């Protein structure tokens, strides 16, 4: 089963953007995700519509975070991505008139909904600022931030 990694991917990109002192290009950020710049722009379009990121074209342009990290929760980001399913549990629906399938699907559906409600509640309490703080504490003391997931063209960008 394929897992949807959009939320994880976009959080990864946002943390790179948060530590950058200048806009980061789609190419640079796509390199951090291991994807194509067009896919990255598509992914960030919902965040731009929500006012969380902005972009400028041309020389010196790129993507930036456009509001304080303390104001953006993981739930906000999830919703800006179109609120994809958080719990991906398959249901047998090839025989909708089957009473067994109806009972199983109802029980599983209720459990999935409860799990998603709890997860959304928790995501609503985690901010990008908290993730950035956690990331900063994972770096060895006295060492510049590690950027192994950014491609070489991004390494010239100063980081805090």
Automatic annotation (TrEMBL):
Entry-linked InterPro entries: Tscrpt_reg_Rrf2, WH-like_DNA-bd_sf, WH_DNA-bd_sf
GO cellular component: cytosol
A Pfam family matched in the record: Rrf2
Origin organism lineage: Bacteria, Pseudomonadati, Pseudomonadota, Betaproteobacteria, Burkholderiales
Protein's UniProt name: Rrf2 family transcriptional regulator, group III
Gene Ontology MF terms: DNA-binding transcription factor activity
Coiled coil region boundaries: none
The species this protein was found in: Piscinibacter sakaiensis
